[in-house]
């Protein structure tokens, strides 16, 4: 969990930049990629990342702008990437101006439980990482390159001039 606003900002800037890289790689066609019949397509998961704050961060009392919530995600990948970029900037600005280190220990109702704002920020952060993992699998299935968030991806090994690790 986070004990200072700056620790959240520092970590979230790094993690959201990785998510942004993936979203910037999406194509309109790739948004239709599913794991299997009956599962949410890549576009839905990507759009969920833009709106996940409505379930967590709004519950902390933070006020910021984000793209309008619609029942269907946009069919244009660049709209999703731009909306994530804008929402992320607005979240970081809101955290900087509306929270203090002391306020991180305030308790808010969240999903029928009582969470500190610190834990809520931590859970929001982890929630994005969870869905980023889903994105990378669906992106691979759609034939798109992925980034190595915590180590080189197969494509990055090649770009480094090294052979990709053997299977």
What does this molecule look like?
The chain is mainly alpha-helical and 167 residues long. The protein has a single domain (5-159), classed as dinb family like domain (Four Helix Bundle (Hemerythrin (Met), subunit A), Up-down Bundle). It contains five helices and two strands, in the order αααββαα. The chain has helices at 5-25, 42-51, 77-98, 117-141, 154-159, and strands spanning 107-110, 113-116. A two-stranded antiparallel ribbon has the order 1-2. A hairpin with a 2-residue loop joins β1 and β2. α1 (5-25) runs parallel beside α4, α2 runs parallel beside α3 and α2 (42-51) packs antiparallel against α4. The chain is globular, with a radius of gyration of 17 Å. The protein starts with a helix and ends in an 8-residue tail after the last helix. The model has no long low-confidence stretch (mean pLDDT 91).
For the terminal residues, how far apart are their CA atoms?
36 Å
Pattern of helices and strands:
HHHEEHH
- The assigned CATH architecture is Up-down Bundle
Strand portion, in percent? under 5%
| Rg estimate, integer Å | 17 Å
Helix coverage percent of residues? 40-55%
The fold-level CATH name is: Four Helix Bundle (Hemerythrin (Met), subunit A)
Task: Tally the structural domains.
Answer: 1
InterPro entries: DinB, DinB/YfiT-like
Pfam families: DinB
Keywords: Metal-binding
Family: Belongs to the DinB family.
């Amino acid at each position: 969990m986070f004990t200072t606003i700056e620790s959240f900002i520092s970590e979230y800037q790094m993690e959201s930049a990785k998510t942004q890289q993936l979203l910037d790689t999406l194509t309109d066609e790739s948004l239709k990629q599913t794991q299997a019949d009956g599962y949410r397509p890549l576009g839905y998961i990507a759009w969920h990342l833009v709106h996940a704050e409505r379930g967590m961060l709004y519950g902390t009392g933070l006020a910021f702008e984000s793209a309008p919530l619609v029942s269907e995600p946009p069919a244009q990948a660049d709209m999703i990437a731009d909306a994530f970029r804008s929402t992320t900037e607005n979240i970081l600005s809101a955290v900087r101006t509306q929270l203090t280190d002391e306020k991180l220990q305030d308790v808010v109702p969240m999903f029928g439980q009582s969470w500190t704002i610190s834990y809520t920020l931590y859970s929001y952060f982890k929630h994005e990482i969870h869905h980023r993992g889903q994105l990378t699998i669906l992106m691979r299935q759609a034939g798109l390159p992925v980034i190595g968030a915590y180590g080189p991806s197969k494509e990055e090994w090649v770009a480094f001039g090294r052979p990709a690790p053997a299977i």
